[in-house]
Amino acid sequence: QVPLVESGGGLVQAGGSLRLSCAASGIIFSTDTMAWYRQAPGKQRELVATVSGSGSTNYADSVKGRFTVSRDNSKKTTSLQMNSLKPEDTAVYYCNLRRRYSDYWGQGTQVTVSS
After folding, report:
1. Which 3 state secondary structure label does DSSP give 58?
2. Measuring CA to CA, which residue among 84, 82, 94 is closest to residue 36?
């Protein structure tokens, strides 16, 4: 039972920045991986970034150099800093916690980048 709550979505112009945050309730294990996904209109949900319990990160090629993911285990949060936003970044962004036998998902937050 790990409820996740995202915040920070909004409307920005191309080239702008947003910071998304995700807060978790309950205990976070060292084996848990936290991740951000996004789903654009008419597109499949795609993995954007992951951060392991030890702090190791991975990024989709489309966001490397622009997005930065981090986590704070003591605060039970993960953040996604998004810079140099492009219209193609427009999507609903979802926080995800990956556990051995199940995944937990937030409700999603809308990010819209105008051209």
Report:
1. strand
2. 94
User: What number of helices (H) and strands (E) belong to the chain?
Assistant: 0, 11
pLDDT, one tens digit per residue, over 70-110 is 999 888 999 999 999 999 999 999 999 998 888 999 999 99
- The answer to whether the beta carbons of residues 51 and 33 sit under 8 Å apart is yes
Find, among 80, 23, 93, the residue nearest to 51 by Cα: 80
In one-letter notation, the amino acid at residue 63 is: V
Cα–Cα nearest to 98, from 63, 55, 50: 50
DSSP 8-state symbol, 25 = -
| DSSP state for residue 93 in the 8-state scheme | E
Report angle CA 40, 58, 12 to the nearest 5 degrees: 40
pLDDT band at 50 (very low <50, low <70, confident <90, very high): very high
Share of the chain above pLDDT 90, in %: 83
